[in-house]
Design goal:
The chain is mainly alpha-helical and about 250 residues long. The protein contains 9 helices and 2 strands; from the N terminus they run H-H-H-H-E-E-H-H-H-H-H. Keywords: Membrane, Transmembrane, Transmembrane helix.
Length: about 250
């Protein structure tokens, strides 16, 4: 990653955000490659014993949401003392994390979008059903257009999970003994909205979707708007906590 002293002051927050995103994607590239391989090769192995009627990419994409939250929170928790120790301000770090979140979410979103479309061709060639679990039954994702629309929301979902992870990471650093408790209300809101996008059963704790009963009838457009608003609110809250962190709260 570029040293801060080699960056111009007005632009280093953006350059650092780009550098963090590149470093994170490079660090986890083998994890990502392994996930892609399992998503495509797993059904081929299972087809020897069972009929394939569920999209493995759907579940891989769901697991990636939690992974995204973990990356955001973990990176932020580690970067706060390190970046401040090297001369970066807390405001600059908040912008850098925003750039990181946008690039990470876009990269994984594009990967999932491509993966779901490729999987549709793959499943079609093998005469399998590209389905998801919805309303306690298996439902096919649908036509090419429906598959593309299904996949297109993932960048936004990843951004919401990234913002959630960043908020929890910032709070855990700011209030070390109790900040992690924000996990519970944040998880309930984000996971409930996530569930409501397709009325599906994503990978995660069922209790966290408790708000679903109030938003099931919102309609997909309103739910997506809600996710965008929540993602923005979480990002703003993360920034407010981050710029308020005492410089002496933890040694670098």
């Amino acid at each position: 990653m570029l040293a801060l002293q080699n960056l111009t002051l007005p632009n280093r927050r953006f350059t650092l955000g780009l550098g963090i995103a590149q470093a994170a994607l490079n660090y986890f590239k083998y994890w990502i490659i392994a996930a892609v391989a399992i998503a495509f090769l797993g059904p081929l192995s299972l087809s020897q014993y069972n009929e394939i009627d569920l999209s493995t990419w759907f579940y891989t994409a769901n697991i990636a949401k939690w992974f995204t939250a973990f990356v955001a929170g973990g990176f932020l928790y580690v970067l706060v003392p390190n970046m401040i120790a090297t001369g970066m301000t807390r405001r600059e770090l908040s912008v850098a994390m925003g750039v990181f979140g946008l690039l990470w979410s876009a990269a994984l979103g594009v990967l999932v979008f491509a993966g779901l479309l490729i999987e549709r061709v793959y499943y079609g060639a093998m005469d399998w059903t590209q389905g998801i679990q919805a309303d306690n039954a298996t439902t096919a994702i649908g036509t090419w257009g429906e598959t593309a629309a299904f996949a297109a929301v993932y960048p936004l979902l990843y951004l919401a999970y990234f913002a959630a992870g960043a908020l929890i990471g910032a709070a855990a650093y700011r209030w070390q003994s109790s900040g992690w408790l924000l996990l519970f209300p944040v998880l309930v809101v984000v996971f409930s909205l996530d569930n409501a996008v397709y009325d599906t059963e994503p990978f995660g704790p069922s209790w966290a979707g408790v708000l679903g009963r109030f938003i099931d009838d919102w309609g997909r457009g309103l739910v997506l708007t809600g996710i965008a608003v929540v993602a923005a609110g979480l990002a703003i809250a993360s920034r407010r906590i981050l710029i308020d962190i005492p410089l002496h709260s933890k040694k670098a």
